[in-house]
Amino acid sequence: MFFLRSIFIVMAWCIILPGISMADRVIAVVDGQQIMESELDEFSDKIPGPFKEAFKKQALNKIIDAKVFYNLGVKDGLLNSEIYKKKLDKARQIIVTDLFIENKLKSRIKLTDKEIEDYYNQNKAKFNTGKKILAGHIVARNNDIAETLGKKINNDTFDKIAAGLGKDSGDARYITQSWMEKGKSRMPPEFENEAFALEKDEISPVVQTKMGYHIIKVFDVKPGQERSFAQMKENIKARLTQEKLNSIKQEYLNSAKVEIIAKEYQ
């Protein structure tokens, strides 16, 4: 019943106010103030297409909440308060800055498809994902302890022995499984070199690093993937656009008369 009544209210507003087209219709009324669909569209404009419709009901609730509390603030006299004036001045600075960057600086950015493709071809390695392994390892305090454990460990016993090691054990402990990519795992090179040479379900001999003496097991492997230009085009475009914008900003900053008076900030 409520849903039907809401539809009739919207239709009534469209009839009473013929200037409002169905392309920009009243979708809600808060304390006599209309919320137009164009306002909701603007609020949800940055949401990716597949999620936009699902987000709109939530967005409308946020707009309604904002209007309710804004109206209460106005009734409370906050528009004449000093704190409002200070916040308004800060907001004005932010808005003017954003508008200047959007309208003046971004209009100077020229970026061709060739520049984007050249960047991709010159930096392919950056966009590729490397081989990943799911590895767990036992780390022992000294080589004798590690070698003793190593003699007991095989593919069938590794999990059971690892589970029996306490996290706070002084002699040896088990570091649970985690995905690793070479050069990004924060593990020492000796560990990485041995771990990434293993196949799935393979166990390493004892490996010494500055962290201790390790026995590593690889539980799963994901091969590296090459990302195509089509996959990376928008990402590269955004990156190069930001770089060009930063360069243009720097031109203005270099030409500005700036003097830092406080010595501790010079």
Structural features, described:
With 266 residues, the chain is α+β, with helices and mostly antiparallel strands. The protein is 52% helix and 16% strand. A four-stranded antiparallel β-sheet has the order 4-3-6-5. The radius of gyration is 31 Å and the shape is elongated. It starts with a helix and ends in an 11-residue tail after the last helix.
Mean pLDDT: 87
Task: Tell me what portion of residues adopts beta-strand conformation.
Answer: 15-25%
The separation of the N and C termini measures: 67 Å
Count of the domains:
3
Overall form: elongated
How many separate helices? 10
What is the CATH level 1 assignment of the largest domain?
Alpha Beta
Q: What pattern of helices and strands is seen along the backbone?
A: HEEHHHHHEHHEHEEH
Q: Return the CATH topology of the largest domain.
A: Chitinase A, domain 3
Structural class: alpha+beta
Strand order of the largest sheet: 4-3-6-5
Low-confidence stretches: 1-22
What percent of the residues sit in helical stretches (DSSP H or I)? 40-55%
Radius of gyration, Cα only, in angstroms?
Answer: 31 Å
Give the strand tally: 6
How does CATH name the architecture of the largest domain?
Roll
Largest sheet: 4 strands, antiparallel
